[in-house]
Design brief:
The chain is α/β, with parallel strands linked by helices. The chain is 33% helix and 15% strand. Helix 5 packs across helix 9, helix 7 runs antiparallel to helix 9 and helix 14 crosses helix 15.
Length: 486
Amino acid sequence: MADPKGFLKVTERELPARRPVPIRLKDWREIYEPGSKEVLSAQAGRCMDCGIPFCHQGCPLGNLIPEWNDLVWRDDPKGAIERLHATNNFPEFTGRLCPAPCEQACVLGINQPAVTIKQVEVSIIDRAFAEGLVTPHEPTRLSGKTVAVVGSGPAGLAAAQQLTRAGHTVAVYERDEKIGGLLRYGIPDFKMEKQHIDRRIEQMEAEGTRFRAGVNIGVDITWDQLKERYDAIVVATGALRPRDLAIPGRQLEGVHFAMEYLTPANKAVSGEPAAHVIDVAGKNVIILGGGDTGADCLGTAHRQGAASVTTLAIGKKPPTERPEHQPWPMAPNLFEIASAHEEGGSRVYTVSTVEFVGDQSGKLRALKVAETEFVDGHRIPKAGTEREIPADFVFLALGFIGGDNDEIGVQTELAFDERGNLKRTNDYTTNEAGVFVAGDAGRGASLIVWAIAEGRAAAAAVDEYLEGSTILPKPVTAHAQPISLS
């Protein structure tokens, strides 16, 4: 245990300060100031080393949270990063992007603010990189077997790193021009600068993983050709098909899916050639959807200099305190303030969208909305409450409904489930021998920690398929369900 009385001496959470809003809106850098080592140690010391560490169950990766909290408190950076890397290939990603279900499950959260687990995690990996503690782990032998990983998001990268370290020759295929998937092209730099992806790719290349960017499997190489070249395939293509909103005026110029806005903007920030960049400077913007993707659109619009940004949600505003029907250790639905919300804009709840309203030239000029009425469990527009909100752009951040599987559905015999995801068994195998599915491509849109956990677990299944047994760890939570008391 770190400090036996730590949770009694330090009873409040303390995180590094965020850079002042007027300053951070002038650039695309990450928002946090460097944290204090003393504060970090004190926060890690709040961990109680519980007899039953519910944070393990809260984290799909099974992170050894009490162990590395103790090592941070003892100022042992080498030991801390070893324990962190034992279950998580990419803590620099999860420490910035994960919504931290581990903190929702923290036992201290029964009557105190939870341990700042996510901040401790990202501090461990950032210090490890700064002090040269992250080095290549080259395999001790080569198996002579080859594996193709299709998709370079967190699931694909985790599977590739594990399989390379097991001695297989691994090639990662990515249809975009750079490796990273949504980590690179969907996440704005103010949440995660791309240097974190680049330096991890450097480590993986030094270990032997090969990367093939700009190659679209199904178009540049057929799936049959891929199966002929490799002994096994891991499909980790994500769930990128966005949920649409089929209301009148959807075809108007100015109505876009969130990724149609974010991807070109992220490319422009990185200096990559980007077609169809949407610049909202001086414009009125409405975002439909209040999740992480909506917040990413919000922060991007602020930095581009939008005249106004309004986020609309069809449902009721979540409570700020844990409701009685979601007691610990359940994951409560709470009102959250992301960094982008601090920067401006309006958030309006119980608003139903009725129509996109355009001018005579076919351009969007407003969004017609109404109050949400709740009838027999359904949310419908309340008659007589319609009004228009001026809008030059509307971004649909309504979530994702499955994978972009046109080519794979035509060129292979792979089966799909009722949601349009690739069907797989509990060991990630499909109905085609040697083809495995990991991450959102099989699970549906989910959290980054689930993607990494499934990538690691799928790698163990592939290794066992190729070798008859496996030396790779199998995350025990990879197919488990989140804690539920219902």
